[in-house]
């Protein structure tokens, strides 16, 4: 990083800024916010709506993010390097597998799972995304679509993060219309033979197992999931270069050329795109929560900055136009928090619909993107320095806005529900 300000240890930096008599010059130059712990945004006391258990797990992850993620993640993001050092530490938290029950998974409430996604994203959206890919998409696919043997084999070791999972749905020519994927699987003796290509696969080049969605030619070409293990001959993975969001999470292009996998690696209970859609509905709730965390990070850092940075003889937070922006951010974040709480509650009751998850993903990813832009603006030039946190969230908000269904796709899902007319094609 190119900061002229030394990257001080959390305690030292905060102590210096808060020291009575600290010079105004010191405060003005000390724009390195890495490692500062900001007051939490909870304007409507939503904390009181959480159970003790939910609050405890949220606090544990929050503390972990403050201590272990935020202080180290900027350089990983800048170098576009996966932070392997976090894998065993996150495994130790006992949160992987989230709301999945049995098979060594923690069986948390969906609300707790959403709070975890928000906290991880408050630290870094690459981290929340690879946990979402591994724990939500890959493990979720095995949980929803796997037979008993597949669940017993894969889920416990994935919950311990001894094996990393990825989720391969999107193709070079099939993004929003992923229900029309073209990758095929054909049965040949005790194997399936896969041909086709996948794009944008998070962890695709690192994962021990990728859940690949393909057309099963022996089942009328219906979509099914296939577990493709690392090192399978005929599978090539290439890291996509030049990605300017979620930089510490690699995304890969995968190709399958007569790639032969054991027949028992076909997910036993997947017989249509319906199972894929069930997994995506579950994870869209998690993405909405991650977008909330992304927005909270921007607001909390910006509020602290605006009360400290002086222009025209007073803190910029004392100017009406800045207050208007901060209050708008707070308003949107409070609404997002309430929506996440309600969705988590509905999910726990088994009542959350796909359209409700889509509306939340649409709202939260749209608002997070705008909140990050306002935060970046309030920080002026300092807003584009990695040391001030917001630019990383600003870039990452762009990816969250597009993945797991763009704003247009979520709109069409909800539009179909309220009008009864599908307008996708
Ligand atoms: C960082 C990142 C990580 C990802 N990780 C994964 C992963 O791990 N696994 C995986 O399988 N996929 C992954 N994806 C893929 C992601 O889900 C797709 O990018 C997303 O679904 C959109 O597809 P697309 O990028 O091909 O855009 P396109 O489908 O080409 O869309 C381009 C534009 O056209 C609009 N559009 C498309 N159809 C319509 C329509 N009917 N009406 C109106 N507008 C329309 C879209 O909304 C968008 O604005 C990832 C993507 C990103 C960016």
From TrEMBL:
Residues 166-258 form the Acyl-CoA oxidase/dehydrogenase middle domain. GO terms for molecular function: acyl-CoA dehydrogenase activity; flavin adenine dinucleotide binding. GO terms for biological process: fatty acid beta-oxidation. Its cofactor is FAD. Residues 51-162 form the Acyl-CoA dehydrogenase/oxidase N-terminal domain. The keyword Metal-binding does not apply. Keywords: FAD, Flavoprotein, Oxidoreductase. It is an enzyme of class 1 (oxidoreductase). Its EC number is 1.3.99.7. Residues 280-418 form the Acyl-CoA dehydrogenase/oxidase C-terminal domain. It comes from the Bacteria. Belongs to the acyl-CoA dehydrogenase family. This is Glutaryl-CoA dehydrogenase. It comes from uncultured Thermomicrobiales bacterium. The lineage of its organism: Bacteria, Pseudomonadati, Thermomicrobiota, Thermomicrobia, Thermomicrobiales.
């Amino acid at each position: 990083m190119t900061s002229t300000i030394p990257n001080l240890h959390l305690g030292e930096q905060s102590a210096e800024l808060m020291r009575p008599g600290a010079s105004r010059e010191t405060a003005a130059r000390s724009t390195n916010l890495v490692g500062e712990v900001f007051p939490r945004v909870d304007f409507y006391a939503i904390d009181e709506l959480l159970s003790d258990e939910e609050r405890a797990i949220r606090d544990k992850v929050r503390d972990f993010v403050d201590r272990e993620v935020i202080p180290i993640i900027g350089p990983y993001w800048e170098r576009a390097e996966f932070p392997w050092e976090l894998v065993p530490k996150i495994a130790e938290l006992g949160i992987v597998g989230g709301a999945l029950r049995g098979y060594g998974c923690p069986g948390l409430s969906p609300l707790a799972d959403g709070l975890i996604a928000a906290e991880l994203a408050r630290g870094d959206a690459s981290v929340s995304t690879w946990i979402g890919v591994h724990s939500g998409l890959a493990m979720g696919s095995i949980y929803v679509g796997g037979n008993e043997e597949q669940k017993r084999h894969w889920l416990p070791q994935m919950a311990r993060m001894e094996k990393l999972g990825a989720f391969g749905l999107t193709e070079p020519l099939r993004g929003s219309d992923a229900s029309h994927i073209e990758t095929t699987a054909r049965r040949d003796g005790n194997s399936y033979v896969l041909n086709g290509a996948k794009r944008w696969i998070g962890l695709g080049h690192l994962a021990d197992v990728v859940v690949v969605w393909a057309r099963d030619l022996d089942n009328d070409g219906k979509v099914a999931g296939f577990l493709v293990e690392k090192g399978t001959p005929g599978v090539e993975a290439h890291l996509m270069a030049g990605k300017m969001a979620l930089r510490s999470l690699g995304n890969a292009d995968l190709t399958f050329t007569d790639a032969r996998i054991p027949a028992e690696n076909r997910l036993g209970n997947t017989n249509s795109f319906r199972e894929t859609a069930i997994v995506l509905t579950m994870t869209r709730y998690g993405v909405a929560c991650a977008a909330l965390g992304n927005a909270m990070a921007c607001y909390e850092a910006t509020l602290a900055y605006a009360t400290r940075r002086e222009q025209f003889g007073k803190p910029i937070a004392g100017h009406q136009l800045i207050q208007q922006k901060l209050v708008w951010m707070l308003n949107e974040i409070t609404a997002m928090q309430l929506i996440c709480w309600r969705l988590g509650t509905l999910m726990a009751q088994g009542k959350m619909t796909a359209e409700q998850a889509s509306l939340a993903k649409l709202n939260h990813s749209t608002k997070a993107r705008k909140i990050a832009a306002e935060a970046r603006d309030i920080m002026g030039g300092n807003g584009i320095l990695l040391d001030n946190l917001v630019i990383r969230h600003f870039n990452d908000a762009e990816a969250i806005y597009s993945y797991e269904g763009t704003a247009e796709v979520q709109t069409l899902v909800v539009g179909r529900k309220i009008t009864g007319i599908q307008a996708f094609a």
